[in-house]
């Protein structure tokens, strides 16, 4: 049995449910609850609280690209994060000389410390600012398009697997003598993977790929005519990125979620087997 308050009893002022210490006489137009200025969101009519705004956003179906990626408005957060990690790592290379040696890659070091197959992609030559500038510019040039077309998860997977593929290219294509002791750094393998991916994706969507082919050709040629460029990593990353992007782009719509998992796992397994066979061929396990 409930009782009614006395007519003369004071009534407690309305407070924001999220911030009970804040009095608010403004109410959400959807749920009617009090909402403080911090929790108010301007609507077409009146204001909504943040909870109602979030609920409405969840109710709106996500739009997808032609290849099934979830379209995100705003900044390409994955591309910006990758650039930020590379820049932060480059600063650490300048400040801590041991940082480069700890994470760089060579086929010999990679045999004993496999994580170097990936970590070297976040390093750049400390004395060559053009090196990181070119790679980050290329990443910014093609990354946002792929991020939006493939979706964030598939795009990030593509980048990381291409980075590993670039290191595997150094193992498979370099001679197992002095070249295996030569260290390498840079995001070039991953960037070339994006080049291969943008070529495949553009072809799949019916775009003009002549400019992309010229871009890839020029950059591949530079690796053969300029000193201190690991062209093997470029080729490895290009092939890896192209193959993975082909799996993404040509997957039947009903199988895209399955392919998004199975394709990179299968490709990584192939890269692993190829690398182990290359090590075994020179008696690295002996």
TrEMBL record:
This is Rhomboid family intramembrane serine protease. It comes from Cellulomonas humilata. The chain crosses the membrane at residues 77-96, 116-143, 155-174, 180-202, 209-227, 233-251, 258-280. One of its GO terms (molecular function) is serine-type endopeptidase activity. It is a multi-pass membrane protein. Keywords: Hydrolase, Membrane, Protease, Transmembrane, Transmembrane helix. One of its GO terms (cellular component) is membrane. It comes from the Bacteria. Pfam families: Rhomboid (PF01694). Signal peptide: none annotated. GO terms for biological process: proteolysis. The lineage of its organism: Bacteria, Bacillati, Actinomycetota, Actinomycetes, Micrococcales. It is found in: Membrane. Residues 113-248 form the Peptidase S54 rhomboid domain. Belongs to the peptidase S54 family. InterPro entries: Peptidase_S54_rhomboid_dom, Rhomboid-like_sf, Rhomboid_protease_S54. Gene3D superfamilies: Rhomboid-like (1.20.1540.10).
